[in-house]
Design goal:
homodimer; alpha/beta; Rossmann fold; 2 domains; 6-stranded parallel β-sheet; 3-stranded mixed β-sheet
Chain lengths: 302, 302
């Protein structure tokens, strides 16, 4: 489908794109760049790309699809460095969890004749690095593209077909709405999970060993997403501040109401609240976005 | 090991105890009571007990081990109703997530010569009802017993052996400390998960359909524990108010600090915070309390 796919940044998402593109026959050649010697060496050992290089210019040169897979905080620098070598007609895309900041940092570098189509795969795991990638990561998951106003429709359609070839479904929306939706579905849950784990660690009347031993009562769920890549998540919160603070404000308001119901012993309020939340879980399972197996099916695997 | 095990309340935990006790040969006969006609009929169809009855007196009569598995809010009434029929020398226990309230509500009814040993299995799933139970639920999990001061050591030892026969390990601590530890490891994570799901549902700028479609970005994790039994969780928050408000206060303080770091764009603080939380996840996996598989291993199963 594409002649040369250039993947810039070989962590969980970059390496998974390479695996999935190979599986789907979505690119004739795959070239991977990473700034880290260590990451490149590990990526070479795994062998998910035809060429792994430390030369960004060589990686993106002649590529008809270039996907930036670095943390969002590196976009400005890497886009500026790659821009002079991008081929006319090439599609430039990314996978960042924040789309307004991605556009802010990448667009000014994009040369005329190159089609910038921002995108974001709603998929991942708590692991990072080139070993963390696997071909089925995007199967059944959603990719959100946030095409620029006046952008090239054909480029957007080709990028959409690429992601479908990787096993995903594709939606489009504007970048501002994306950032609000993701603040709710991803950034807030991560911030809260990090915070729960932080509170548990610092609570002086409960030993850390107790928190770990008795984690199967609920706490362990929070620790999974709180084990995600710190650099990636630092950059997300630095670059989606407004939307995160907006939904965090709503979360805090709601929590104050729930806290008052606990303080007042308002059993009917609590029961009704805890009943309404079940419907969303049911819908997520019905739409194939989570497993119906109890405890995510993990306990039998142990 | 026991002659007759009486299980009062045939939901997830009660039915799992029956399955696991059979598997482990921990009781010669198992009798189950439930107040609901429907639950009893379903329990009979599954067949995890020798007798299923609507007669609480008959259920506990002659039992040398009686375990209350109803929601915590029903303890006072059910203990008072069962008390006159408890056999001298019997062990009376429970599985409630709140131990001070369990003692407050059960102990006054316990006849002389009956040994009350409160206990709490740190295990469960988001499902409820008699169909939700399975024999391996307690395998590798911790049971916390909170023996009463001056209680019978032999009874506590026999209850410990029973739970070990069900596949679990047993710890002991005082009830007050239990309630604080569980407020942190279980009650707070559930309250927060319920609240995240509530915020997502009520956010008017983001459609519920979007929250569901893009839930694999983190949100879906919260929905699992927010799908837990509403009656059980209402009773937990009504009966462990002080400890929950204490850890919730700490959570809110910590969140205010994290919120300020986001607002100020303090990247170093965020990075350090997100790095420290990884160690707890690692320890939980090393101690066998969670799977190391990415995304809890659930995505491959879909």
């Amino acid at each position: 489908m594409f002649q040369k796919l250039a993947i810039v940044g070989l962590g969980l998402i970059g390496s998974s794109i390479a695996h999935a593109a190979r599986r789907g026959g979505c690119a004739q050649a795959i070239c991977g760049f990473d700034a880290s010697d260590d990451v490149r060496a590990r990526a070479r050992r795994i062998g998910f790309a035809d060429v792994i290089t430390a030369d960004l210019a060589a990686c993106v040169k002649d590529a008809d699809l270039v996907i930036l897979c670095t943390p969002v905080g590196a976009y400005k620098e890497v886009a500026a460095a790659a821009a002079p070598y991008l081929a006319p007609g090439a599609i430039l895309s990314d996978v960042g969890s924040v789309k307004q900041a991605a556009i802010r940092d990448i667009l000014p570098s994009v040369p005329a004749g190159v089609h910038f189509v921002p995108a974001h795969p709603i998929a991942g795991t708590e692991y990072s690095g080139p070993e963390a990638g696997f071909a089925s990561l995007f199967d059944g998951r959603w990719i959100i593209v946030t095409p620029l106003p006046g952008g090239d429709d054909n480029a957007a359609a080709r990028l959409k077909a690429f992601w479908q070839g990787l096993g995903a479904s594709v939606d489009a929306m504007d970048a501002r709405h994306h950032d609000l939706v993701l603040a709710m579905t991803s950034h807030l849950p991560h911030l809260i999970a990090y915070n729960i784990v932080g509170t548990a660690r610092d609570l002086e009347d409960v030993r850390e060993g107790e928190v770990i031993k008795y984690s199967a009562s609920g706490f362990r769920d929070s620790t999974r997403i709180a084990a995600s890549d710190p650099t990636m998540w630092r950059d997300i919160f630095l670059n989606n501040k407004d939307a995160v603070l907006e939904v965090l404000g709503r979360f805090n308001e709601d929590l104050a109401v729930l806290q008052r119901a606990v303080r007042n012993g308002d059993g009917q309020f609590l029961f009704d609240f805890f009943t309404r939340t079940r419907a969303i879980r049911k819908a997520i399972i019905e739409q194939g976005q989570d497993t119906a197996a109890p405890n995510f099916g993990r306990d039998k695997a142990q």
